[in-house]
Amino acid sequence: MKITLEGKTVLVGGASKGIGKSVAEHFAKAGARCILMARNYDALSKVQLSLVGEGHEVLVCDVTDHEDLREKIKTKTVDIVVNNTGGPPGGPLLEASIEDLQKAYDLHVKSSQIIAKNLVPKMKEKRWGRIINIISTSVKQPIPNLGVSNTIRGAMGNWSKTLATELGSFGITVNNILPGATETERLSELINKKAEKNNLAIEDVTQRMRKEIPSGRFAHPNEIAFGACFLASDKASYINGVNLVIDGGRTASL
Fold it and tell me: For residues 200 and 91, what is the distance between their CA atoms, to the nearest angstrom?
């Protein structure tokens, strides 16, 4: 089954590294024009130069600066949105401040709402669109010591399901990808902090985490990107409002 996204434009959040970078690479290979969004111009430029195809664009933006985000996207015409932002810092929920929760809400839910409000009207005109949210398996099963992340990811999950119901009749689908432990800087940071907190070797923490995964390994960012490409394609036109778990079988719930 060949997936083609020829003639489509995709806005990819967090495109300078990790999952976002892999998503951009695979969308470009499928023929899409990519608008690469993140805070680091130099990193985005390197990704832009590495992509196959032409017309790719860099959009430097801190999505928590909501007015700047609104100004930079309001004139864009986009067929596909991939909402992908870094996770909040780890730690127990009751050790988090109100400001920590607000910052996470601004980063994930508010920014996604601004993007949707500005880009969905043109999707409605075309009667075609895709919104894909890279969230976390914590939507289905909270992860220990990620209190703020669990809370905000759940909010994003319900935001997505609500939007899927509202937009389905316009030919627009809204779906979530829930990655498990994936080989990114974020995972390395979590492993390092856990090792330091519990006075353990990094390799011991890594091995313990791998043993919790039936597949016995962490995901590669490419494997998350493959799922995003499928959900963005016409092959997935009747898939709407779902959580696609890509975690090697770790999540205990269905």
Answer: 17
